[in-house]
Design brief:
12 helices, 5-stranded parallel β-sheet, alpha/beta, 430 residues
């Protein structure tokens, strides 16, 4: 990704529907991996490419690469998205534009791995947020730049950096035909891609380009929406002083922070999973900007959500208890449920769960029935909470409250199906 950056054009990869066969003359070099002559349900890919091409000045040396990941109906799959991101990394694409995404938690791990690998290689990802406000991938993976065309209640709480951009052309001329542009997050992402490519053209092509520095720069200039990551970025640890690979430093205990050299330029970002003095937190925030992840800020947001009361469960709520804490068992359980087709993320009352792609939800928040919010925002099929048997949980809204040691995975799957069936018939518990 980094080799000879300044000696070549800025390359933008547009991951979208196939480009339809049309005689459109572009202002910049446009490479199409596959042109479709079939009649499509929409010209979504054509419009995104045309927006980026027409909104960037002709004299800027820009190349646009159209990488189809969706079919003519706008449908795709995880494998094609991962393959396309890896292709962009291998072909030195500087910026990826994605006006698409997944709302399945099962896809979180694979998409995150591909995206973060691309980011660490010196690339930048700009992706459209979900139009309904639900958590979406990769737009809400930090530090992907998520784009919305309007404010959303859900986007306030979770996700990576977000740009709100409502200045979208109402009409676009493609191949001599005027097309009406509907205001959406998809086209807002294309416009933002052109804006960033124009304004930060030389900066992105610098040999020493850093996503970390870039995000913090445009955060100050463009005022991102304040948000909190519900999951943590992929982290790579390297002890070699000559290694340029960035890595995440996780602080679990306050005393450990005293022995860390925060000036070490190999540290990509800081994840604070313990309490710390306000002055020290302020110093880290100043140095790392958006790349300082503070558990106290996350808890503050969740406590605000805890004030949102709900008369009854809108989704099945399952409470599992362990005789002894076994993170490996929880990881296997989550994977088992996802492989069964359920959109699920296990919730636990310990911040350690964030390191295993689970939700951290303090027990105190359950009284406010934050379950419905999590399910709505992350499109979950059910709310699954796990803690110790020895912890007395007096909350009585569970649809299932059971010790997991007495269940086999297969039996657990049967119980979930029965809960789902009764839940649909009754319509939730009161």
């Amino acid at each position: 990704m980094r080799q000879e950056r300044e000696d070549r054009p800025l390359r933008i990869g547009v991951l979208d529907t196939p480009i339809m066969n049309c005689p459109n003359k572009f202002s910049h070099f446009v490479s199409v991996k596959r042109i479709s002559s079939e009649e499509a349900d929409s010209l979504h890919g054509n419009i995104c490419v045309a927006l980026i091409d027409q909104l960037i000045e002709k004299d800027l040396k820009v190349e646009i690469y159209c990488v189809p990941v969706l079919d003519k109906h706008g449908c795709g799959n995880l494998e094609k998205i991962i393959e396309a991101i890896n292709w962009c990394s291998e072909n030195h694409i500087n910026v990826i534009n994605m006006s698409l995404g997944s709302i399945s938690m099962k896809d979180y791990g694979p998409i995150k791995k591909a995206v973060v690998s691309y980011l660490h290689g010196g690339g930048l990802v700009i992706a459209a947020k979900n139009n309904t406000g639900k958590y979406s991938l990769p737009a809400d993976i930090f530090p992907v730049i998520g784009v919305s065309c309007q404010h959303s209640l859900f986007h306030i709480w979770f996700g990576g950096p977000e740009i709100i951009w409502d200045d979208i052309p109402t009409e676009l001329r493609i191949a001599g035909i005027n097309h009406r542009i509907i205001k959406s997050n998809s086209y807002a992402a294309a416009v933002v891609t052109s804006y960033i490519a124009k304004k930060y053209y030389k900066y992105i092509l610098r040999e020493e380009f850093s996503v970390k520095q870039f995000i913090n720069i445009i955060e100050e200039e463009k005022c991102f929406r304040e948000s909190v990551q519900p999951f943590l970025p992929e982290y790579i640890v390297s002890k070699k002083s000559s290694c340029k690979t960035a890595y995440t430093l996780i602080i679990m205990q306050k005393d450990v922070a005293k022995t860390i050299n925060f000036i070490d330029n190999r540290i990509y970002n800081i994840i604070l999973l313990c309490k710390m003095e306000n002055t020290k937190r302020a110093q880290l925030r100043k140095v790392f900007g958006s790349f300082f992840w503070d558990i106290s800020e996350y808890e503050k947001k969740l406590h605000m959500l805890g004030c949102i009361k709900s008369a009854k469960n809108e989704y099945p709520c399952i409470h599992l208890q362990l005789e002894k804490w076994d993170m490996k068992l929880l990881v296997e359980l989550q994977k088992f449920m996802q492989n069964k087709g359920y959109n699920v993320k296990i919730c636990i009352p310990y911040s350690e769960g964030l390191l295993y792609e689970m939700f951290y939800v303090p027990i105190s928040l359950l009284k406010g029935n934050v379950c419905n919010f999590f399910c709505r925002t992350f499109n979950l099929d059910m709310f699954v909470f796990v803690d110790f048997e020895k912890k007395k949980n007096k909350i009585d809204f569970w649809d299932l409250n059971i010790s997991i040691e007495f269940l086999s995975m297969e039996k657990f799957s049967d119980i979930i199906k029965k809960i789902e069936e009764s839940f649909i018939i009754v319509g939730g518990n009161g």
